[in-house]
Each structure stands twice: as C-alpha cells, then as structure tokens.
Amino acid sequence: MTRSIEDLSTLLRPAKDMLPEVSDRDVALAEVTGQIKNDDAARALFSKACRFEAPFTASWIHGPGDESPYLSLELAASSLDDDRYRALLADVVLSTSTSIPYDYRALAAERLVQAGTGEYAGALQEVVDSYEPLPARGLQAKIAVPTDGIDHLFDIPETVTGRLNLLIAASRAKTLESRHMLAVRVLANGVLPSEPVGEPERLILEDVGTTMVAPSDYLVPWDQEFPGEHGSGLTLAELVRITLMCGEFSLPDTTVRPILVDFYRSVLRTCGRSIIGLSAGVFHVEHGTLATPSYYYQGRDAILGKGCVIDCVGGAVLQAGSFLGGGYMPILIHTHKHIRKGGQAAASERKQILPCVFAAEAGARYPMDAIGLFETVDYLGKETPYEGIRAIPHAK
C-alpha cells in the first residue's frame, strides 16, 4: 500500500502511457482508491488532481474509465461519500483553473445535476450574477484597424513575458465564460436551449457525450476581444496568430508550453487528452471585415500533429482519437476557398470565399506523408483519399 502523501503524489503524476513503468495499473488503482476513501490529505490531493493542477495535468487517472470518458470521475463516484462527491463536482464546475478541459467540467456539471446542487446553489448563482461578458469588436473598430493592404496590424508585446501574459489573461477570461455557461445550465437542471442540428453539430454531440454541452459552445467567436498589453484590445483571431507566429510557442519550454496548453483548453475548449503539437496550431484570418464564427472542436485523444495547421475560417471538427499529420511535415488544412467571377481582377478573390467544415471522424488518420495543402472545399460531395476525413458543406 502507498504509505504517505508523497508516495501518492508520485503515483498520481505519470501519464497513462508511462504508468506501466511505475506500477501495475490494478495495483495503482487499489492504492489510490484505498487512500482517498480513508484519508483527508489524500482526498485533498485527489481533488487537486481533478482540477488538473500541476503536476497532475496529464495524470493517468484522467485516462478513459470503464464506463465514462474519465477514470478520475469514476474514482470520485465510487470512492467518496455523497457529500464529498457533491463537493468535488461543485469544485470542478466552479473552479477558475484554466487547466480543466471544458468537456471534463461539463461532465462534472452533468453529474452535479444528478447528485443535486445542495448547498452549492448559492455559489452557482453568484457565478451567474457576477459574470460580465467579453466584448466583440464592432464594424467601425475593424475599419479603423491599421493594415498593410493585406493583413491587419496589431500591437504585439516585445517580450516573451508580455506575450505569455496575453494568453494567461485570455485563458482566465474564457474560463470564467465557460464556468458561467455551465452554472446557468446546472441551475436549470441541465436543460439547454434547443439548437438546429446539422452534420457538424451531430458529430460534436455524438463525440463529446454529455447533455451539458451545446454544439454552439464550440462555435468560436473570432471577433471576441481580450485586453492587450497597453489597453488596446486583441481579438481571439489575433491571439491565435500570435501563438502560431511567435517562435517561443513552438518550443517544449517548461514555462511556455503549459500556458499554451491552458490557452487552447480554455479559449478553444479542446477536450481532455487532446494534443496540439509543437509548431502546430489553429488560426483564423479575417477577409476584409469578415470574421464569422466557425466551429473548432477537438475531441478526447485527438491529435493535431507537429507542424500541422488548421485554417478555421470555415470550421473543423476532430472527433476522438483522430490524428492529423505530425513529424514536423508542413501541412495546412484549408477550410475555405477563394473564388472570383469571370472578368474580375485576380486580387478580387481575396475577399470572396467559399467556406466548409473539415471533419475527421473518430480514429481517422490524416497521414504524415501527405505534406502540403489540403483544400477541403475540393472534396465537397466527393470522397477524400483518406478514410474518415471529409468535407461538410457550410450551413447557409
């Protein structure tokens, strides 16, 4: 048996694929379960792990359970008494930790509805009442943004610390937004407003597997503004371009990488265990003043491999276990096509686009050797060369 909190902390740290090098899974499971059933300090450490706090952000207990997407939530249900279980679920839903994946928080919210909010109803209501929505950049503000004729220009902090602070502030703001949305739904006993369900929405609902999530939660508002370094706002579209084009975000740095992972988890709501590799990422570029919201959904264990980039002007849905590219091969997944009519100047196509949604079904693989550009629009109504990879028409 594990004999100390230090031993338990050491046992909880390894990632799922490293656990066999430390302990047999069944033995580790018995040790963890025994401690959190009988020891207050162990329960506190387990709660810290369930909030995805360092050093437990990739712990094996966040791997798949026998009957649910996360073993840690199963352990909580089976090892804690009713009051402690409710307290842990409320703690996950109410936490301001930017490291908690949105799907994990939503699954905890679903279970909190089932268990009953009890004494946490007041705290949930306070979250609802105190929330202040983030602003969106308006048309006049867009027109006033400086340009070099092609790209919008915006202030980027000169220092790495300044750029990291931008991501930290955005992650905190979006975490408060997610917390607010789920608090509203918990207080409504899990009742969500009905939404139209097309193919992208169906793929999201099928994959995320919780009644507390609406597909529109993954409809990214690229115009949403966050505080800049000197008071000037930066949109989400500008922030993701900073993460792609500033070299420090392509390094496996012990300070930078966790902040970037939290940014993707909170701002794009990537699911738990999903990975955006080094030199990989997501971006959105406005065409003129156009920044229509578009889907970005990345399911559990889905991987955007090293060097693979998705242009999200049209949208992307990556179901659980899908894997795009990798190995630093340059791959661009393009989700819209530029068009021009006969007689128009070639440059006119920059502002005229045909968008679509790139979809990678569960377990699909976009091969590492398929380097270059994948023009998703070209496969509307056609099969792609890769099983499980397809193009979905954009909703009218």
What would you note in describing this structure?
The protein has 396 residues and is an alpha/beta fold. The protein folds into two domains: 16-120, no CATH class; 129-393, no CATH class. 36% of the residues lie in helices and 14% in strands. The chain contains twelve helices and 16 strands. Strand 2 and strand 3 (234-235) form a beta hairpin. Helix 1 packs parallel to helix 3, helix 2 (25-38) crosses helix 3 and helix 9 runs parallel beside helix 12. It is globular and about 75 Å long. The chain starts with a helix and ends with a strand. The mean pLDDT is 92.
Taken in chain order, the helices and strands follow as: HHHHHHHHHHEEEHHEEEEEEEEEEEEE
Overall mean pLDDT stands at 92
Strand content: 5-15%
The termini sit apart by 60 Å
Low-pLDDT sequence parts: none
Helix/strand/pairing category: alpha/beta
Task: Tell me the number of strands.
Answer: 16
Tally of separate domains = 2
User: Oligomeric form of this entry?
Assistant: single chain
Helix content: 25-40%
